[in-house]
Structures are given as structure tokens and as C-alpha cells.
Amino acid sequence: SATGEPVRLVGAPVVYAHRGASAYAPENTLAAVDAAADMGVEWVENDVQRTKDGELVVVHDDTLSRTTDAKKLYPDRKPWRVRDFTAAEIARLDAGSWFDARFAGERVPTLRDYLDRVDANQQRLLLEIKKPELYPGIERETLDVLARAGWLDRSHVTRRLVVQSFSADSVRSVHTQRPEVVTAFLGTPAVADLERYAEFSDRINPWHTTISADWVSAVHRVRGPHGKTLEIDTWIVDDPTTARRMQELGVDGLISNAPDVVREATGGF
Ligand code: G3P
Ligand code: CA
């Protein structure tokens, strides 16, 4: 546009880079954050877990075997659980080569390093607390890291951060401890239960195959803890047909491994 601002058509969903732009770079690495930034995608999604010695790190699976060279580096540490490794041990892992040789040397980021990169790129973050049942207290620790990195400052906290989880208890815990933080519940609650979820969730983020137009309308009628009607970000939408179907259903956001593809299909940014 004339001002250089991205043009977002009315009704176009917001696009989130799922685990970063993970169709193009290894998921949950700084390279995947940068790949999203290079496409002009503002929002990135990540997954947070905890090491044996209490460091918060960004990784999706609760084991290290799929997305790092842990099996090679630590052959006798089966099943390579994140929570059984120290931060120093995890820092030695290669989290890029499995995806493509040109990403050799990418690391499993600490949450702090990840936040600083998202910040430096002037991006926004959809932070998932992954498997919180494995990590008692991870909500408070995540909020502490966010606070220390400046992410909870009142001037911008609601504009650039959403914290989500499949665990309603975890989302409620985040909301209770820091009510200013925008939260999302991952799942598809029954319409009859929406008011209960709306006590602690501002957004409801369902798998795309599970939703209907009636469900979307019902969610959009309920008000969340900040007094606004609930919004819906659906996952994982990677193809143009599904993206347009979700747009027609009226969802507010698409969480995508290929954010450029679904943005193009829906006229969003
Ligand atoms: O953001 C939604 C999506 O990330 C939830 O599923 O397994 O990719 O964390 P998963
Ligand atoms: Ca996730």
C-alpha cells in the first residue's frame, strides 16, 4: 500500500506461523522465527517445556529424538525425554540437520533467547505451554521469563502476546496469576461449556476439522475475561482450500506451517 503497511482485507484472518514458518525451516528454531519474519508474518507460535535443571526451552515433542541429533550424541539416554536432559546438554544438540543440511547448527532455543529474537524481529508470539502436566509450576516460570524479558509491560502485553494450552487448568492458572495476559484454550468445547471456558480464555483455538458455522457463531457470542467476544484461531491450516473454508466459517485466525500460502489464499497478513 501507499504507506508500506500490509493490506489486510476486511474479514481476512490473522495468520500465525506454526512452530515458526515450519514448512520452510526447522520447527521451533530461531531460523523458523526468521523465516516467518522474512515473509512479513508477524505472529509466530511455539511450544515451551522444561529441562531437568529448570530451564524453559522451545521444543514440541516431550522427547528430543525427532527434531534433534540426541540419539547420536547421547545413544544411551533412551527415550531422550526433554525433562531428563540439562540445559547444557540440550544446548549441544543440532536441531536443524534433520530438516535440511543447510540448517545444521540450529539449536533448541531457550525461551529467553526465543523471546529476544521475536522481539528483535518486531514479531508477536502465540506461546503454547506444552504438556504442563509433566512440568508442575511451568505457568509461573513462563510468566517470570516473560516478565524479565519485558513482555508483560502493560503498554504492549495485550497487543503482542497470547498464551495457550490444551490444558484448561494451565490456561486458568496463567489468567489467575497475570490477568492482563491474553489467553487461549486449545480445543473445541461444547457450546454449553463455553461460558465456563470464557472465565479464563479470551480465545478458543480448535483443530480445523472439528468446527462448524454454528459453533463459530456460538463462540463469537460469548464474552471472555477482558470483556471482548471470544475469537477463534484454528490449526493446522496449510492448503488454500481449507484456508478459504475456514475464512467462510468466520474464524479469526489461521495457524499454519505455510503462512505465506494461506495468507495468499485469504487476503490476510
Ligand atoms: O497452535 C496449535 C497447535 O500448535 C496445537 O498442536 O501439536 O502442533 O502443538 P501442536
Ligand atoms: Ca503448538
From TrEMBL:
InterPro entries per record: GP_PDE_dom (IPR030395), PLC-like_Pdiesterase_TIM-brl (IPR017946)
Keywords per UniProt: Signal
Record organism: Streptomyces antimicrobicus
Entry-linked PROSITE patterns: GP_PDE
Domain GP-PDE: start-end pairs: 13-266
Name of the protein described by the UniProt record: Glycerophosphodiester phosphodiesterase
Cross-referenced PANTHER family: GLYCEROPHOSPHODIESTER PHOSPHODIESTERASE, CYTOPLASMIC, GLYCEROPHOSPHORYL DIESTER PHOSPHODIESTERASE
